[in-house]
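Quick one - inputs below.
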Amino acid sequence: MSTPAGGALAALTAGQRERLAALAREAAFPAGARIFEEGEPADRFWVVLEGRAALDVSVPGGPRPVVETLGPGDLLGWSWFFPPYVWHLGAVADGPLRVREFDAAAVRVVCDEDPVLGYALARAVGGVVAHRLKATRMRLLDLYGPRPGGGAP
Amino acid sequence: MTAPAAAVRGSAAVPLPYRVVRRDEETADTVTLALEPAGEGLEPFRPGQFAMVYAFGRGEVPVSVSGVERGGSGGRRGERLLHTVRAVGAVSAGLHGLRPGDGVGVRGPYGTGWEPAAAEGGDVLVVAGGLGLAPLRPLVRELLARPERYGRRSVLLGARTPADLLYREQVRAWSAAEGLLVGAAVDRPGPGWDGDVGTVVALLGRARFHPPDTAAFVCGPEVMMRATARELVHRGVPAHRIRVSLERTMHCGTGHCGHCQLGPVLLCRDGPVLGWDRAGPLLGVREL
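Output:
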């Protein structure tokens, strides 16, 4: 065993992963290609195989700040799993990017048909969201900045 | 109450005179000072240990050794100590402001080290947040000097901004070293940053390691170390193979004054480096 082992969908059984794989294809994005745009329909999602994707936010009149980067094994996109199925961030290929691309609507249909698979996928996606929430909260603490209150020697 | 320190040398409380022979600016508020003994030098330091460094007229602070250089002109051993200091208070600002030729007092070595020998034969993760790379740098140099002793080696770095990353030139050189994975993530990227954005914990997913045989060495803000250690345990790394460096107010450095007490542990003597099997439960107690 070695990590990362299967990445974001590692918790699914082999059979469940196979079933999802039937709804997916390999795809590639050149460096700088926009993968999705904030506010657009979230009709696909990806698992990064190679390279890095940057999540960014549109700021009027300024450059788009990158809020997080994702690498091999990471799930790119979770807005497809929750209504209203609209991207709340943008994503761009931060260098050449190879991914496994899933048809989000088809995956949701399979989840409705097979609640066991649906529950397993919900746990996997929920785990990713929870992990990113924890990471965001850590960054909110500004751990590496000056300590509030001072008192250091 | 903890038992008195078993082996404290007679001179442990007396600083020896050192002088600054080089001052390297690392970031806007952090410098690395190369200190050479003016006469007799201290005993050799092991990676992870610390010294009490005395800025004359201001006071003393514990500072980890961020490197050792051989071949200096001063002292019996001719050994230069490198200390990376961030100006955060009166004493550290005093040290930060020192220039070549200035004098300081140094005593040590104190505390436990990283003890990389225990990691031999397995994969190694070094995880540093912010200034936490300073005490880990001697360990990274050990991994680079003797790669045949270890399995897959990864160095993962976190910082607030790209400008806050320590030892940038050396980190670039480490990235080019064969067999060493180096990753860096910042909270706030700037123009030209080609690393990751996010927490250093997220980089663990990029490293390749066999959890049961992996040794992890973690240093940084306590919240970052807790999050890293918990994630490593979640991934299957044994708690006792995760070593963290803890920080509390230290005064004597010899296990006598008790300022650095953390439950049953006096960090200056029993730490600062502890296994997560000991440190984890202590850090989980509020107001300890």
